[in-house]
Design goal:
- The protein is α/β, with parallel strands linked by helices.
- It is 27% helix and 17% strand.
- The chain is built from twelve helices and 16 strands.
- It has helices at 7-20, 46-54, 68-77, 87-90, 108-117, 132-144, 159-169, 207-211, 247-256, 258-264, 372-380, 390-406; strands spanning 2-3, 37-41, 59-64, 82-84, 98-101, 121-124, 149-151, 176-182, 271-274, 288-295, 304-311, 333-338, 342-346, 351-354, 414-417, 422-423.
- A nine-stranded mixed β-sheet has the order 14-13-12-8-11-10-9-15-16. Strands 1-4-3-2-5-6-7 form a seven-stranded parallel β-sheet, sandwiched between helices.
Length: 447
């Protein structure tokens, strides 16, 4: 049975619970053979893999999706799980230990924060949040409520990224002078306006629940000949819309900027500026080039360090990477220009030292990777710790999302005070650091 609840009932119950238990200290103790009770919120697409990979050897006790087609497929896979369309009703189920959150970006923080306040461990897809303020609150609240957290940037656990970090921090290419990161995204519509038309909401889709904290707007279905019959927003195409996603940078930045921030030991950026077009008020532009400036570290050259992000087919200048004849930069990757050479890493591939003849005798000694999903599951049971916990993933997401603010002010360098969570020189930019939720959808901890 798909269970529903009213917003008023949920908010009343949540408020009562928050008064009775202002902070949460986990009392669950798991033995070697005990099973974790996991719930999946958003169980199609990436969510399908998230719940499947985190639940190996565990119990899936609840599943939730706003699309009845997706939910129905998950019900067949997990026949013992209770099924919901409304995540708020799912969180009333008392036997849940941990939750995966794999929804459109604008719903990550409301769901994850509500779950953490009930003492649930959380695995949240990247980017961690839709705004910088949400990311900061998620970081703080994970610590306050004592829950295990992990962001879904699976490459963080890979052998390739861990080996990259070792090479950079061991000084294999010397100190890093500059870094570049890029993606071939978007592979969904961007740079488009909202159409004046609307379509009937299909019977399988709970549109108001899909909108969640976002402002109300009409449903628009798939245009004739659209890829995989994807609608204008649901499924997948929401990524380019300002109200729901964070564009190419937000989608891939938490993957590809991750090794730059990690290996160079970077803190929050101090300055960010865009060399590309601005959004049209509805969607992100088709391409972007974002420059980040950070304070220098032990692993970089000088007092300030620059990283540049490219998307929409843009890439670093080819001469920065002395590749062998016939080779070119990959569609998605990162590049480190050091004092003694260059390191190139294809997203999902192994790091490559350049020029190849100069590093021919170097024994890379690859670092073993780990299962990013099961690392979280095991940590929820008290076995080890996560590596992309919110104390790491929150600041990484902050860096990424600052680029989506700079996109709105092309040609202006925004100066960032991370401690105050404030742009200090372009007052208008602070309007995008946080946002308001739709009436009836407010979440405690995000006021």
């Amino acid at each position: 049975m798909r269970m529903q609840t009213t917003r008023r009932t949920f908010l009343k119950n949540a408020a009562a619970a928050s008064v009775a238990v202002p902070t949460f200290v986990s009392s669950s103790v798991f033995g070697a053979n005990d099973r974790l009770n996991i719930a999946g919120i958003g169980v199609g697409g990436k969510g399908r893999g998230d719940i499947e990979n985190t639940s190996q050897g565990q119990n899936v006790v609840a599943i939730c999706d706003v699309d009845d087609r997706t939910l129905g497929a998950a019900e067949k896979k997990y026949p013992g799980a209770k099924a919901y369309n409304d995540w708020r009703r799912l969180l009333e189920q008392t036997d849940i230990d941990a939750v995966t959150v794999s929804t459109p970006d604008h719903m990550h923080a409301p769901i994850a924060i509500s779950a953490m306040q009930l003492g649930k461990h959380v695995y949240v897809q990247k980017p961690l949040a839709h705004t910088v303020h949400e990311a900061r609150q998620m970081q703080l609240l994970a610590k306050q409520y004592g829950v295990v957290s992990q962001m879904g940037n699976q490459g963080h656990g890979s052998s390739s990224y861990r080996t990259l970090v070792k090479l950079i921090q061991n000084g294999t290419i010397g100190k890093v002078k500059e870094a570049h990161a890029w993606s071939n995204r978007p592979i969904w519509p961007q740079g488009i306006d909202r159409p004046p038309t609307s379509d009937p909401v299909p019977g399988y889709l709970h549109w108001d629940l899909w909108l969640g904290v976002a402002k109300t707007r009409p449903f628009v279905g798939a245009s004739e000949g659209s890829k995989r019959e994807r609608g204008l927003y649901h499924p997948f195409n929401w990524r380019g819309w300002l109200d729901f996603g964070v564009g190419a940078l937000g989608d891939m930045g938490c993957h590809i900027i991750d090794p730059v921030v990690w290996s160079c030991g970077l803190g929050a950026p101090t300055k960010v500026w865009s060399n590309g077009p601005a959004p049209n008020g509805e969607t992100f532009p088709n391409w972007g080039i974002i420059n980040y400036e950070f304070a220098g570290t032990h692993f970089t050259v000088g007092d300030a360090f620059r990283m540049t992000w490219y998307d929409g087919g843009k890439k670093p200048a080819p001469e920065l990477a002395p590749l062998p004849d016939g080779e070119s930069l990959p569609d998605n990757g990162s590049l480190f220009v050091g004092e003694k050479g260059v390191l190139l890493c294809k997203h999902g591939g192994s790091p490559q030292l350049l020029p190849t003849n100069q590093f021919a005798g170097i024994d890379v000694n690859e670092v073993a990777g780990h299962d990013h999903y099961m690392q979280w599951t095991n940590a929820c049971k008290g076995e080890g710790k996560t590596s992309s916990h919110f104390d790491y993933a929150g600041p990484l997401t902050e860096t990424v999302l600052l680029g989506t603010i700079a996109i709105r002010f092309p040609g202006q360098a925004i100066e960032w005070d991370s401690d105050q969570l404030k742009v200090t020189n372009v007052a208008a930019a602070n309007a995008f650091v946080r946002k308001s939720y739709r009436d009836g959808w407010q979440v405690k901890g995000l006021a």
